[in-house]
# Entry
Amino acid sequence: MALLPLARWGLAAGVLNGFVYAIGGADAAGQPLGTVEAYDPFGDAWSPRAALPTPRSGLAAVAIAGRIYAVGGTGAGGVPLELVEIYDPATDQWSTEPSTTPLYEARTDFCTGTPDGQFFPLVGGHTGSGQTTVVWVYNTQDPSVPLLRTNNDLPVAQDYHPACEVVAGNLYALGGRSSTPGSGNTWLDANSFLDWTTGLWRARAPLPTAREGLSSGQAGGLVYAIGGLDAAGQALATVEAYDPAADAWHGKAPLPTARERAAAVSLYGRIFVLGGRAGNTALDAVERYDPGKDPN
# Structure
């Protein structure tokens, strides 16, 4: 497959009109990027798009109503951001229009998804003052009430790039890392389920492999936890699939390229994994997973 034109990690990705968008990220030196590129899966080709107004890594992206929201992240100087910038593919322009209210608090290395095409929760990650369990929900259609808080916070602080997937209108938050003063770091096997109707969190079957910096996607009714970083600091090729109906995990074919802080999207029944990092190397690798070809 065609490589990313610019190798990077900590990027976000979204899908609009059959194109995969790779947004922002950081280079091998850790400098935040504003680069945006669009991938045509039929032509197997990348093309440049309008750059993010604010270069950043550790951001999240979500596509709603024909536009992509680029949310939070880490900007120049390692400062977490409260920015929300919106991309319109019809004009190839980014906006921070008046209806786009910044986040209540800066947030980076978190995840999101939209259960209903209007709201998206900010899950895990950290603020300027440290990790957080608070879950704010961004309202894209009512600028007078841009952010709401869920009834309950995350059961555990899922920092350092957990992965989110929405299934049947509910959200799953996978993995990450938490830090406890005096106890150090804990790499998480968390599988936190947000019931969108009640706003309540519940624990589901844990990830078989605890990790931070993982990516995720969906194919064939399963949720895939992809790559990441283990407690030894090794980038992983591990791929595990979760069956929400059975509340059970199964091992799947590993990534050809071990990586953490990659982006992943689901499109046409396949999962595309973009960029990421292995050690100090920023990756330009793009790999596609086809569940019909996996013997596992």
Residues 219 and 269 are 5 Å apart (CA to CA). The chain is about 0% helix and 40% strand. The mean pLDDT is 93.
